[in-house]
Amino acid sequence: MQITSAEFVKSAFAETDWPGDHKPEIAFLGRSNVGKSSLINSLLGVRGLARTSSTPGRTQSLNFFLINRKFRLVDFPGYGYARAPKTVKALWGAAAENYLAKRAHLVLSIHIVDSRHEPSKQDLQLHEWLVHQQKPYLIIATKSDKLSNNELRKNIASIERGLKVDRVLTYSATTKRGRNEVWSAIEKSLKS
Fold this sequence. Notes:
alpha/beta; Rossmann fold; 21% strand
């Protein structure tokens, strides 16, 4: 896909803040520090559009980005070990679940896992929820450049077994490995 424009639209903490038009949306979900923002920036070929940080939990709202004036990418708060009060974490979880359950414009959920690790308990819960809700999803294992090809193959097979899926795409924000496959899946979801 050729990116002609990519712009930050807004941060939303509540349903009343979500964009009101009917553009299709792609959600990016995963634990804190899994590389959601880096993946978005790499896919778009834009530095710093989605905020990245070495400190887990920096994204605390749903962040909407308008792409080519035709569809939006939605960067979710990470789940897991973010340093935030439990009350704030509960609000993040409620906002995420509310969006995923209610958003009619959601055409694809991209569930991001770290290729170097087994799926976490929260990864398994998110996957089960997406399957149960019959939401279209794609699983992407990031940070694939951090492993040898042999280690990557072994870890991807383990992730597929853990999540009980046939296919996990690999991605590297550094080398752009997997970029074409991810865009292909996004384009397909936008046409459905």
